[in-house]
Design brief:
Layout (H helix, E strand, L loop, with lengths): L5 H5 L4 H33 L3 H10 L3 H22 L5 H6 L1 E5 L7 H10 L15 H6 L1 E5 H16 L7
Antiparallel strand pairs: 1-2
Helix pairs in contact: 2-3, 4-6
């Protein structure tokens, strides 16, 4: 269990920011599906191979259950890989100036990101935001923070701690 850093709590992203992250990232997922369809058509037109075109057609005809399952898997993969390779950010978080950190202020590990994103697959996770934090934040011991505010507070604390120390030139 990690120690809780109050600076992380004070600089959590607002719920509207988190909602904007979700909406932007969902739009990115939609664009991924559209791009897959366009690339499939392009491959068909250039090579005559209809493999990807057939996959695209099958995806367009799935029932509601399979649609939700496939979209959830794609979103899980997108969020996990984006957060891991960009150190806590997705396209939505880049746009809103937020990022994922552990509750102790450290950089999350791959395992933390995995737990965070697999937890999103729990039905009604979105309703957990009626409380303080979402379940995926609680279970992974992570928080989404406002980067500017967080870094400013960390910098101010660092400067205060440096007061009175002798500078060596």
């Amino acid at each position: 269990m990690r120690k809780y850093l109050i600076t992380v709590d004070r600089n959590r992203a607002q719920k509207l920011t988190r909602l904007a992250n979700l909406i932007i990232d969902r739009i990115i997922i939609l664009l991924i599906f559209i791009a897959f369809g366009a690339i499939s058509a392009l491959i068909f037109n250039v090579t005559g191979s209809d493999l990807f075109l057939n996959i695209t057609m099958k995806l367009s005809q799935v029932n509601r259950f399979w649609d939700i399952l496939i979209t959830s898997i794609v979103y899980f993969t997108y969020a996990l890989l984006m957060e891991y390779f960009t150190k806590g950010r997705t396209v939505g978080k880049y746009i809103t100036g937020s990022k994922v950190v552990c509750i102790d202020g450290t950089q999350p590990t791959f395992n933390d990101y995995f737990i965070r994103n697999i937890s999103r697959l729990v039905p009604f996770d979105i309703l957990s935001f009626l409380g303080e934090n979402g379940w995926h934040d609680k279970w992974s011991e992570t928080r989404v923070i406002n980067i500017k505010n967080y870094q400013a507070e960390i910098q101010a604390k660092s400067e205060i701690e440096a007061l009175g120390t002798k500078e060596i030139a």
